[in-house]
Amino acid sequence: MRDDQVLVSGLIAACREIIAAHADHLSELDRAIGDGDHGTNMRRGCEAVYADRDRFSQMPLAQAIEEIGLTLVLTIGGASGPLYGTLLMEIGRRLAAGGEADFSAALTGAVEAVARRGRAQRGEKTLLDVLYPVQDEVIRRHALSAIAERAETSATLTVGMKALRGRASFLGERSIGHMDPGARSCALLTSAICHYLKEHRAA
Ligand code: ADP
Ligand code: MG
């Protein structure tokens, strides 16, 4: 297998593993401020990608990322499926277009696309409250361990926020005091990806 085939396959396995290990907790977080399905949704998406990992790892990296995004849209469902799907499809497209060979530029454009899709911005207690800080760290070319740490602390910071988007917004003030499930899944995935890259690739 080529290096990037091993990379794609390994990253898919690492993401699937972390979501499987935390699916119950993600659903528990979603039970507090949503409808309790976020762990099930994320697990379904990651299992579908994992089942097709050989096909993805045959593709050029940018195409694999885009196709994984499409699979996530079709399998995660809920509000988070189209958002995670948009993120990956946009990263893949931007990398493939070549004009943005730089990963941080592709990520920045993709995070903007997620924000447009969710009509959301920073501070509204969603997965964007992890994506934006991660994007900032990537732009500054911080070390992988720093990116992972920032993702974790950013998810924790959603505890104090009032939800303004998605189901949790129906709770208004009562959403304060709970961590946003999408922010948590986003931190878990970021952390799994950073740790995998740190172990298998120079930063
Ligand atoms: P659903 O809310 O449809 O049950 P999930 O439970 O899978 O979907 O996902 C909920 C997560 O999706 C939230 O915790 C939040 O992070 C994210 N989310 C929901 N709506 C939006 C939005 N409009 N913009 C950004 N993120 C959102
Ligand atoms: Mg839900």
SSE topology sketch:
Layout: H1 3-33, H2 38-51, H3 53-58, H4 61-76, H5 80-97, H6 103-118, H7 128-139, H8 144-157, H9 181-200
Helix pairs in contact: 1-2, 1-9, 2-4, 4-5, 5-6, 6-7, 7-8, 7-9, 8-9
The site of adenosine-5'-diphosphate has 23 residues, from helix 2, helix 5 and helix 9.
Structural notes for this entry:
The protein has 203 residues and is mainly α. It has a single domain, classed as DhaL domain (Serine Threonine Protein Phosphatase 5, Tetratricopeptide repeat), CATH 1.25.40.340. The protein is 72% helix and 0% strand. It has helices at 3-33, 38-51, 53-58, 61-76, 80-97, 103-118, 128-139, 144-157, 181-200. Helix 1 (3-33) packs antiparallel against helix 9, helix 2 (38-51) crosses helix 4 and helix 4 runs antiparallel to helix 5. The longest helix has 31 residues, at 3-33. The protein is globular. The model has no long low-confidence stretch (mean pLDDT 95). The structure holds adenosine-5'-diphosphate and magnesium ion (MG).
Largest sheet: none
Order of helices and strands: HHHHHHHHH
Relevant CATH superfamily: DhaL domain
Could you give the count of β-strands? 0
Name the structural class. Answer: mainly alpha
Give the strand content: under 5%
How far apart lie the N and C ends? 21 Å
Task: Please summarize what this structure is.
The chain has about 200 residues and is an all-alpha fold. The chain has 9 helices and no strands. It binds adenosine-5'-diphosphate (ADP) and magnesium ion (MG).
